[in-house]
Amino acid sequence: MTSIEHSEDLVTAPTIKRVRQRRLRYLNPFKGRPKPIQLSGLFLFDPEVSTRLRGQSVRTSFIDMGEESLYKGLERAGRMGRATKSLRDKLIALLPPTIGKAMADAFDAPNASTHAFSQMGPWEAYLLGAMRDENGNSTVWPTSAQFLYDVEHASRPAAALCDAGQFQAAAEHLASHALLQRFMSPEVLHGIAQPVHPNDRLVLRIVVALEVWLSLLALWDIEARPGDADDAGSYIEQLLTQEETTKNSVALLFDWLLKKANVETPTALMNDQRLRRFSVQVGTLGAWSRGTNFPSASYETAIARALLSAEDAATFKILSGAARQLNFLGYVAGYIEEITGRLGGAAAAQARLLGLGLPFGCDTIEAWMRSRFPVWLQFHRANLVVEVPAATGAVSQ
């Protein structure tokens, strides 16, 4: 079977920039040098992706705690494959007691299958640490957090079957699961069932991960609007590119800002007296207006506060986060577009039969987002449940 030539390391900014010019451009969503975008389990983006999209990082968290030297020590230990007892004790001391004990057990018996960490995936471990108050006590899990746990937990049997080469059984498990089967088209399920090249299997995982993340955005959107039961004020839908426009989510966010500030153009905004205290360059604002540059969160928030009412500034902050998430999806989906766009004839037809393309056979990234996001809004509205404390939910303490 002919394979699409690529590797996981190709999911970087230089690769995405080679997408055909008639397609909308999506920006590298992360600061610094482009790095591979990691997957967790079968179909989830790694927790680090989520934190980086929010402008956070593990290193920054350690610096904020005054523990940069500990972070550097852990980095060195990771490269060497071992950590001193002193280093382990310093790390464990920073963690909530339950997590600290599990970490200590894992350090003492790293290859054992009995300690808590061996039984959980990256998202469960992350959520158990993140969903706590300042005193280290468990907090209520939002539905979106439970969703991530559910997807990770439910897909583990299929991941194990794929690792064992039992692809047909893995596909049957996914197709029979009430939630998981909603993330993939019949073509994708067919592709998963086949002994395809590992490169093609990676593409299938990314295709499903895109759909899972779009579904997650629908949940986040609902959670951000507790009083909007009919979804008339959906934040995400305000930033979805329509057929008649050629603007990505970054540019649409800028348009929203101009409209709410009663300003016509980037040049007029630069000269606006409300921004006289800022060092604003027309080139920067022009690039933002075209969707080719996304200012830092602190910079754009300061501008929004100067231009908008308190209510509109709060809305802008939510929209900015939504725009970054949509840009991330467009960036990763551009990778799928680029590698499948190299194919022609019989190879292209075969790829479509195996689900090797944008989710649910959509022709463009924007058409996929427009068609599938409302589906997930409707699904989550129909299945929304009351939030439960982590101690009584699917993850026990």
Keywords:
397 residues; two-stranded antiparallel ribbon; 18 helices; disordered N terminus; disordered C terminus
Morphology call: globular
Radius of gyration: 22 Å
The number of distinct β-strands equals 4
Strand content: under 5%
The low-confidence runs, each spanning 5 or more residues with pLDDT under 50, are 1-21, 386-397
**Average pLDDT for all residues:** 81
User: If helices are DSSP runs of H or I spanning 4 or more residues, what is the number of helices?
Assistant: 18
Measured between the Cα atoms of the first and last residue, the distance is 47 Å
User: Biggest β-sheet, characterized?
Assistant: 2 strands, antiparallel
Taking strands numbered 1, 2, ... along the chain, how are they ordered across the largest sheet? 1-2
Helix-strand topology string: HEEHHHHHHEHHHHHHHHHHHE
Give the structural class.
mainly alpha
Describe this structure in words.
56% of the residues lie in helices and 2% in strands. The protein has 397 residues and is mainly α. The strands form 2 sheets. A two-stranded antiparallel sheet has the order 1-2. Helix 5 (85-93) runs antiparallel to helix 6, helix 8 runs antiparallel to helix 9 and helix 11 crosses helix 18. The longest helix is centred in the last third of the chain and has 32 residues, at 310-341. The protein starts with 12 loop residues before the first helix and ends in an 8-residue tail after the last strand.
